[in-house]
Amino acid sequence: MRPLSDAVPKVLLEVRGRPLIARLVETLARSGVGEIVINHAHLGHMIEAALGDGRRFGVRIRYSPEAEPLETAGGIAKALTLLGSAPFLAVNGDIYCDFDFSSLVAHTLGEHLAHLVLVTNPPHHPAGDFALRGSLVGEAGDPKWTFSGIGLYQPELFASVKPGSKGQLAPLLRAAMARGLVSGELHRGEWHDVGTPRRLAELNQPA
């Protein structure tokens, strides 16, 4: 997202007049989420200043700062002391979507280690990531859909990641998929990965 993210964290860039992360916090609050943990590294103090403790959104926000970016699984593993021992919802901070998070708040994982929200493949990622057969997500099969960055997880999925170390999410998910322990659903509504200045500008074009 450079050069835009050189001075402002990507999640604080505005889409249609509101910072991306503020929109997500508001949406999560409306969906019944009461406690939120935000991990950050680059210019994280600006995120904390913008969101505070969450009271104005009707939630409680705590922060898990990283001296350097730990990637998705590494960031989650470091934050587990704040997240607790129950299943938790994780959302990428740089997406814009109309997904109804209340369905995940009410979802029960059962024996599964993760439940992923997949979306139709955007132009910049036409090959997709994972297949969906019934309610199970796997690597093999067609068509493949794109992982949205929205998931419900059991803490034990991250047991192999040492807190404070870097770790990618995809290898953990693939290992769980091989054991039939990842469920999922397909969201066909609005979803955007706001990963480049061009995509941000397209979202901010007048309707």
Reading the helices and strands in chain order gives EEHEHEHEEHEEEEHEEH
Radius of gyration over C-alpha positions, nearest whole angstrom: 17 Å
Task: Bin the helical content.
Answer: 25-40%
CATH first level: which class?
A: Alpha Beta
Unreliable spans are: none
Number of helices: 6
Number of beta strands: 12
* Class inferred from helices and paired strands: alpha+beta
Summed up, the domain count is 1
Largest sheet: 6 strands, mixed
User: What is the CATH third-level topology name?
Assistant: Spore Coat Polysaccharide Biosynthesis Protein SpsA, Chain A
Mean pLDDT: 94
The CATH homologous superfamily is termed Spore Coat Polysaccharide Biosynthesis Protein SpsA, Chain A
Give a description of the structure.
The mean pLDDT is 94. The protein has helices at 20-30, 44-51, 71-83, 102-105, 169-178, 197-203, and strands at residues 14-15, 18-19, 35-40, 60-65, 88-91, 95-97, 114-119, 130-133, 136-138, 144-153, 182-187, 191-193. With 207 residues, it is α+β, with helices and mostly antiparallel strands. The longest helix is centred in the middle third of the chain and has 13 residues, at 71-83. The chain is globular and about 40 Å long. The strands form 4 sheets. Strands 5, 7, 8, 9, 10 and 11 form a 6-stranded mixed sheet that branches. A two-stranded antiparallel ribbon has the order 1-2. Strands 3-4 form a two-stranded parallel ribbon. It has a single domain (4-203), classed as Spore Coat Polysaccharide Biosynthesis Protein SpsA, Chain A (Alpha-Beta Complex), CATH 3.90.550.10. It is built from 6 helices and 12 strands. The two termini are 23 Å apart. Helices cover 26% and strands 27% of the residues.
